[in-house]
């Protein structure tokens, strides 16, 4: 059977140039997303990996509810990794597995990043499928091509972050919403709801996919001349609801046991977006609408950005239900994120790029119809549209040639700074996720174990809501497997727990290590008002101390800026 399927695919590829182009495009998309996953990092990745390990240990964490779909996928993958490792003799037991990963977690990050690369490539394919379903094969191919070289999509398909997973789930949901609009089948209604439920428990802003499902339902009912009462009482709505519920439970089974806490989490999260939550230390003073328009322009490149805007204008004056369906998600999602008072970041727009790519592809198809020498003109126009995105993506890929700055700095520190030195370092409250991954000494690990063991049942160590009293097992394994080179480290706790510079001089600190992954907050006006001592501390370092080593990203190296100061 497999041989027959393979032969059929070979026959299709021989006879269908369009399918050859799609396969080539998906291959390029995958290579762009998988290359360099061993030389890239992002602080938030640690949250996802640690949460997945907690799931594998039987801890579902009823205090932290976001990003669960990715976390459960990772938990399954890590279980498979252990199983394979046990079979081939890499791990002799669960204890041996834990002992090895606490000192070198890189295999877990590689697994997670490879998953994101696969999911990112899958989004390119789903974008093609939606474009083909709503318009035609060429529109689908154009849309997939535009998304293939979208910089922020490529970049975050390298990382263990939830945005790519969420986008895959909601685009699949949208694909089934297009089938709802066409045929109104029960299966389409259920699957649209199922993947919507998965997307929502992955990350709450994807809830706007429900607007698309509702829009698709209305278009179908109008086509069938169903009256108002019939629209709201249509029996297929039950399939959507059942799909959403089953998707949410599948994506996060803990909801069944902790629904009240989940609802409390949602309340806190929406408070964060509105700027009313007292658990968030910094708010963006930047206008979100302007920020994200600039973000779209930067990630698409000016020619493709203009094409997309012209396509939106064109379809306003020549409306199509297909474009209305695309905008039913993209527009409310954009408005919600632009109105957010929380952190603004380029990756938050990842979910709307497939939709904008399809609009751009549909418009590109429209304006190239009937042209003389159409194929040559399309090739020339495509090169013009993609020259900036391709350049940006290739520069990013080149930046992954050399070791990440964090590990580059780690090697230098362990070779040049005496072990046992007293160091203030930019890190989290429990682990180092931003500065060079050097190890704390035995005394400090014991102190951390003591703090974590004192956490009350049902409580967490800090507002990240990751470390509870059952997380102590990680630090106990770490204590028993510490490497030879360790340091007396004091964390800045993401910059929140810093005293005046004179304090560190008087307490005999030898070095201060800071990372741009954390220090950027010192220049955030709202954060600086809440933490004035810390902001002044970071701003004064270059004037007060000797900078002995500086590690910066370059054309061939990715990562944060790392600065090492000698305390006089």
Topology:
Elements: H1 2-15, H2 17-34, H3 45-56, H4 68-87, H5 94-101, H6 106-134, H7 137-148, H8 151-156, H9 162-183, H10 186-202, H11 209-223, H12 228-233, H13 236-251, H14 255-274, H15 288-300, H16 302-317, H17 321-338, H18 353-368, H19 374-398, H20 405-416, E1 422-425, H21 442-453, H22 472-479, E2 488-491, H23 501-506, E3 511-515, H24 516-519, H25 525-530, H26 532-544, E4 546-551, E5 562-566
Parallel strand pairs: 1-2, 1-3
Antiparallel strand pairs: 3-5, 4-5
Entry keywords:
568 residues; mainly alpha; 64% helix
How would you describe what is shown here?
With 568 residues, the protein is mostly helical. It has 26 helices and five strands. The protein has helices spanning 2-15, 17-34, 45-56, 68-87, 94-101, 106-134, 137-148, 151-156, 162-183, 186-202, 209-223, 228-233, 236-251, 255-274, 288-300, 302-317, 321-338, 353-368, 374-398, 405-416, 442-453, 472-479, 501-506, 516-519, 525-530, 532-544; strands at residues 422-425, 488-491, 511-515, 546-551, 562-566. A five-stranded mixed beta sheet has the order 2-1-3-5-4. Helix 9 packs antiparallel against helix 10 (186-202), helix 9 (162-183) runs parallel beside helix 11 (209-223) and helix 17 packs antiparallel against helix 18 (353-368). The longest helix is centred in the first third of the chain and has 29 residues, at 106-134.
Give the CA-based shape.
globular
The share of residues in helices is 55-70%
Which spans have pLDDT < 50 for at least 5 consecutive residues? none
Q: Describe the biggest sheet? A: 5 strands, mixed
The assigned structural class equals mainly alpha
Q: What gyration radius follows from the Cα positions, in whole Å?
A: 25 Å
Total DSSP E strands: 5
How many angstroms does the end-to-end distance come to? Answer: 73 Å
Roughly what is the average pLDDT, rounded to an integer? 88
Note the total helix count. Answer: 26
Beta fraction: under 5%
Q: State the strand order across the main sheet.
A: 2-1-3-5-4
